[in-house]
Amino acid sequence: TDGRRQAGFEEPKWLGYHKIAAHYKWVLTKLLDERQYTQVLMLEDDLEVSCDFFDYFRHLTPVLHSDPTLLCVSAWNDNGQAPFVHNATVLYRTDVFPGLGWMLTSTMWKELAPKWPLAFHETPFLIIKKKRFWDDWLREKAQTKDRSCIRPEVNRVYTFGEHGSSDGQHFDRYLKPIYLNKQLVDWSAQQLDYLLHPHYDQWIDHLVQSATVIDFQALSSLPSSSSSSSSSSSEYVIWYDNIDQYLYFARQLVLIDDTKDGKPRGSYKGIVTIRLLRPQNKILFLFFLNKLKSNQLYQLFLSFYYLLEIKLKKQKNRKTRYKFTLHFIKIRLQHFLKSAPF
Known about the structure:
Blueprint: H1 15-34, E1 39-42, E2 47-49, H2 53-66, E3 70-74, E4 91-94, E5 102-105, H3 106-112, E6 121-125, E7 128-132, H4 134-139, H5 141-144, E8 148-152, E9 157-159, H6 171-175, H7 199-209, E10 212-213, E11 235-240, H8 243-253, E12 259-260, E13 263-264, E14 272-274, E15 282-287, H9 291-314, H10 320-339
Parallel strand pairs: 3-8, 10-11, 11-15
Antiparallel strand pairs: 1-5, 2-9, 3-5, 4-8, 6-7, 12-13, 14-15
Helix pairs in contact: 9-10
């Protein structure tokens, strides 16, 4: 790691994260800058690969190079547990960097290399500074610039790294049940044009528009494959009002209840796609935020802010950092409303 440490994180417990970030930068620099390869496939040493792993990446390489709205191609699906996947040929876009077996182009590396993090990237969130490691940094909007990664429905990698730098976070509950693809897919016979922009948005929009809207509570009453009629819809949409509601749904289904940069893992524009109950069923969770409700909440917050500001002015002995904190919260909320997908 050339002896450097992120300020404030010099303790030995953070050494693994410094080494990981430095190692990624060294490898990417060596292969893409010095040896001038046009793309690199990054594969961690605690991953088992599927039988069609290399063929999968070989046929997605031209897709990645041809579409500037793509950030990477990944072999990983965060929601790839056995009960939620079925079709080994279906691929999706996600605007949350998946990691765990991923391909990057030299063009993308030229953009990322000058600002690659030493180990951590501290992002202010309200009054708290959140630690972000290299992969969290890569998920931030400043890096993604609204670009997506391609990921499979059925995982092409399986992690057996229960004990690592992150101390096996989520392993037993979410990573151990991941299903590794066993089907030898002939990727040369697959049509992949739908993954390109703008075809993908048209494809996913059609899927959503043709699906049946149901409440989350109605999942238990959907027919099973043995009792379903030919006229029943195979695609369903469940709307969620905010991220907390989605996380509640995720916990009920034992999906990973985690977000990255405010987005559900594996999601694309707020849509999380899984299969449930029977192989031909898709459950789509769609992001929907009521703008009027948000603006009313913001006006209520402003009223509270100004009242508290007046109170602080009357108490001269209060520390000025409280006033700064209030101002910072106000700015962050304004930024959120401007960037919210209304």
